Structures are given as structure tokens and as C-alpha cells.
Amino acid sequence: DYQKHVRNFSIVAHIDHGKSTIADRILELTDTVSERQMKNQLLDDMPLERQRGITIKLNSVQVKYHAQDGEDYIFHLIDTPGHVDFSYEVSRSLAACEGALLVVDATQGVQAQTLANTYLALDDDLEILPVINKIDLPSADPDMCKDEIEEMIGLDATDAVEVSGKTGQGIPELLERIVKDVPAPSGDLTAPLKALIFDSKYDDYRGVVLAVRIEEGIVKPGDRIKIMNTGKEFEVTEVGVSSPHPVKKDMLVAGDVGYLTANIKSVRETRVGDTITSAQKPTAEPLPGYRQIPPMVYSGMYPVDNQKYDDLKEALQKLQLNDAALEFEPETSQALGFGFRCGFLGLLHMDVVQERLEQEFDMDLIMTAPSVDYHAIMNDGSTKLIDNPADLPDAGEYREVQEPYVKAEIMVPNDYVGPVMELCQRKRGEFITMDYLDKYRVNVKYNMPLAEIIFDFFDELKSSTKGYASLDYEITGYRATDLVKIDMLLNKEPIDALSFIAHRSEAQERARQMTSMLKKLIPRQNFEVDIQGAIGAKIISRATIKPYRKDVTWKIHTGDPDRRAKLLEKQKRGKKRMKAVGKVEVPQDAFMAVLKMN
Ligand code: GDP
Ligand code: MG
């Protein structure tokens, strides 16, 4: 009878369509948090989430709801991020649920991640409840949204709930619809324990805290549990739910979403996606788990202070518990010493990892320019994986270099198709098709090199469409293209951490840009610094930094005042992050210069 009163659902949507705000209203209406404790986007509790105003991590919370049928229900709701880099968080959240609220901004309509997240929910056979948000805005067009949900997603939207996360309008109806439309969980309470680990984090006091969905059976403190994929056994020390602060419980039963601690100390003992069972009475089969998704971009990460290598390693291991998509392995750079090559799902993910290491683990880091991974087909026919541009062998040693390609889908209002196509063409895109989605918008498809998409493509796309375009992409394979490695030399010394790979047609221009960027970013020293760009032994660009005079001013050339402020802010922090490369002091920014070129 307990299960009949449980509803597990995720809130999914394109970024900024109002998931976290709707979660706020649900917490408020169910008296989960008092008025005094209430603040905007309450579930975005990580400092970085609050600074950036975006959700980075999934966040689950239990609320109690007294429904119109007179019964009390328990909701486990999971708020999820909307940015494409964090869709891994979304898919893990969905696996813990029977339903999903698909939120669509009434002024924006269906966007790329609306579609992507719907497909994820459909993969998990979830009941999808369309919710049209921001109906308080004058430009809201709920009927257009319903049209789009029906035409583009193929869901019946006649009964879509219309709400305003801002004013709370429609939220009471939404709660009733959750009771009626989201199926109750159905796992067998008497079966052996079977629970999915859908998230985890490291806590200094309690060790590893696992977020779990109990599929079958019961778990309580004192139970011996086994992690099925590693075979490791533990004794449960605490179970509970987050509401949104941890609340201890006597037990968690089939259908529940909660947390569990068991004196687990290390990352190697468990992984997100693993199944927990009873040590004495194990279940036969583990749950399917998750597909580990490969990183899209790689970057080198080095402690500013070489003594901090072990601290960085420990920090990365702890962070990885809370960020299952982060990958890292040791690497050595001639210029930077001992560090790690890290794999990320995108540039935002990379940025978030760096900031979390600095904020939560007090690390000072130097990150090298991000790069996609290339395949070098060597003369003997073998394939060498190149996730660090400096590792690309000399031209004579390989037959060809291949780079990852994606199929990019861009949803854009009819009026902006021209600029979008022009942009894709400029980024080495290859046109596939263009489909009219409805009377408002088209879906433009291109094959494109991942390297062109990863960097500033999204920003350029936004600015050439007044923010109206949305983008989704997936890797389709590797293609041989005419790529060359460009080395940067400081006073004739090649600096491995500054090497980058570019298409031959752009190599000259990019070397020149990189050289002048470095000239701007590297402060004057008390000797002359000679900067050179080279392909193999051939020097293709050069500049000189004159020796130090009294007034050291760092020039920043950028028009947009917002960006300028951000850059200044970053530089202030970056300034203390200088690394002596040979005799030259090089700031963090210089290693990222590749990102600032077009
Ligand atoms: P998320 O990225 O989907 O979690 O979106 P957020 O909940 O963070 O909301 C994004 C922005 O939209 C914030 O500035 C909210 O204040 C705003 N917002 C959310 N819901 C509403 C709404 O119903 N009406 C209006 N006017 N603004 C909203
Ligand atoms: Mg959010």
C-alpha cells in the first residue's frame, strides 16, 4: 500500500526554461521548506550553481503532498541540469524515476535540449507530462508550444499543464496531475535488495554518500551490502532521504529514492551506475547501469605549485565521485611538470571542474588549451590516439590524421537560416539537410568537425541568431583531414603545453593570432622574450616582448564590456597563477589563448 502513494519523477527541460523555479514552488506548496528558508532555485545549493545561476548537478528531494483525494503522497523529485554538457546527469536521474515533467518555456517553445531530454525519457519508458511554463509573461504563447510539442515531439499536448514558476499559477493543478499521471513504483518488497546508485558524493565526515533508487527489497542500517560490479562488501551505517537536508530513516524500501552511507572511503570501491544488493541474499542480476560516455575535450591540468601533485590527485578522485563523467590520467609536460590529462564533456564541464577544484578543494591550477582527440594513422598502419596536441608525431611518421566529426542539429527560426548556414560553412561544415519543423522553425543539419563546434561555435551561433538558435550534436566518427601541428617557442624553446592542431588552410593565420595573443598575455620580463610559431622546423610567425619597464600594463582588446569585465576578473585570478616555463613567467591565460582566437 505504501508504494501506491509514492511518485518518482524528474524535471527536465532546455536550459533556463524554469525547472529549478518550478521545483521551488513545489517545495513551497508542500511546506517542505519554510517561508523563511525559501530562496530562489533552492536546490541549486552548490556555490558554483548559485554564482552562475545554472543547475550543474542533479538534486533529489522528498516532499509530502496531501492530495485532493484526501490521501497523503510522497514525491521524490529530481531537478536536473539543462545544458548539453550535463545530459549525463539527466539520464542518471531518469533511471531513478517513473515519470518526467517536460518543461517548455511558453515564450521559447521546444528547443534542442527539450528534444534531447525527451528522447532520454522515452528510452527509459517514462511517463512524460508536458508542462508549459512562464505563462505570466506577456509574450507567452502556450498554443504555439502545444503545437510544437505535438508536431516536433509527437506527444499529446491537449492536457499540458500551464504554469508560472514565478507566480505559482497552475502549480496546484500540476501536483494533482503528478498524482494521477505518474505511475507508482512497483518493486517487490520481499525480494532480495536491488538498488541503483545514481549519484554519489564525498563527505569529509561520512565518507562516500550514495544516492540510490531502491528497485526491490529493503535496506536498513546494520545490513551487509555488496556492490555487485566490484564485489566489495560494506555495512550500512545510515539511510535517509533529502528533504532537502538529510533526514535519517529507519529503512528505505522498494520504490524509494534516498541516500545511503556505509563507510565507503574510496572511489575505486563503487561507481555510479552500479547495483547494490544484500551480501547474504544477493539478487541474481545487476541492473543495466549506465553507458559510460566518452569525453569530448581534453586538457592538461597542473598544480601551480609542483608540491601539490598528490593533493590534486586526491581532489580529482573525490570530485570524480560526484562527477562520473570526469576522466583523468597522469601526464608529464616538459614545460609544466607533473599533472593530469583530463577528459570533459565540453567546455562548460571543463570550466566547472576547474572552478570546483579551486573552490571546494582549494587548488591553484594551470589548465592547458582544450583539444579534441585525434587519431594518427602511423606508417605501419597502427592507430595512435592523440589527446594532447604535443603528442602528434612529426609529419613523416604518419600517413594521415583523423579528427572526430559530429552531426550537428540546429533549431532556428526561419528568419535566421541564412546566417546559420554561413556560420556552419565557415566552420568547415558540410550541409546535410534542412527540415521545416512547423511554421515557425527549421532544423538545419550539418556534418562538422567537433573541434569547430567545441570552441566558440555556440557563442557565435547565439549572437548571429539573437539567441534564438539551439544546438545539439552527436559524434558520428573520425575523418581524415589536412591537419598540422603548430608548436609555439619561447626564446627558441618549444613549449609543449602551447602546441595546438589546426587545419592546414588556417594554420598560418592561427599561428599569427596565437603569437600576438601570447605577446599580449605574457607580461614583460626583465629580458627580451622571443615568441615564434612553427610547423616542424619552419617558423611561420614571430613577435617579441620587450624587456620590463616600470609600468606593466596588460592590454585587453575586447569590445563587449561584460566579457571584458569577466576577462579582467579572470585575469586577476589568473595573475597569481603564473608558471615559470624555463625562465619565462607565463600566466594561466596564455595557455588558454587558443580559445580566444577566431
Ligand atoms: P532552469 O535552467 O530550467 O532550472 O531554469 P531556472 O529555474 O533557473 O529559471 C531560469 C530563469 O527563468 C530564471 O531567471 C527564473 O527566474 C526565470 N523563470 C522561471 N520560471 C519563470 C516563470 O514562470 N515566469 C517568469 N517570468 N520567469 C521565470
Ligand atoms: Mg535549473
Structure in words:
The protein has 598 residues and is an alpha+beta fold. It is 25% helix and 34% strand. It has 13 helices and 33 strands. The protein has an eight-stranded antiparallel β-sheet, covered by helices on one side. The chain starts with 5 loop residues before the first strand and ends in a 7-residue tail after the last helix. The relative contact order is 0.08. The model has no long low-confidence stretch (mean pLDDT 91). Bound molecules: guanosine-5'-diphosphate and magnesium ion (MG). Guanosine-5'-diphosphate binds next to helix 1. This is Elongation factor 4. GTP binds at residues 16-21, 133-136.
Q: Assign a percent range to the helix content.
A: 25-40%
- Number of helical runs? 13
Strand order, main sheet: write it out: 11-10-16-7-8-15-12-13
What class would the helix/strand composition place it in?
alpha+beta
The rough form would be described as globular
- Poorly predicted regions are none
Report mean pLDDT, rounded to a whole number: 91
Tell me the major beta sheet.
8 strands, antiparallel
Which small compounds were modeled alongside the protein? Answer: guanosine-5'-diphosphate, magnesium ion
The strand count comes to 33
Strand proportion, as a percent range, falls in 25-35%
Cα gyration radius (Å) = 26 Å
Q: How far apart lie the N and C ends?
A: 61 Å
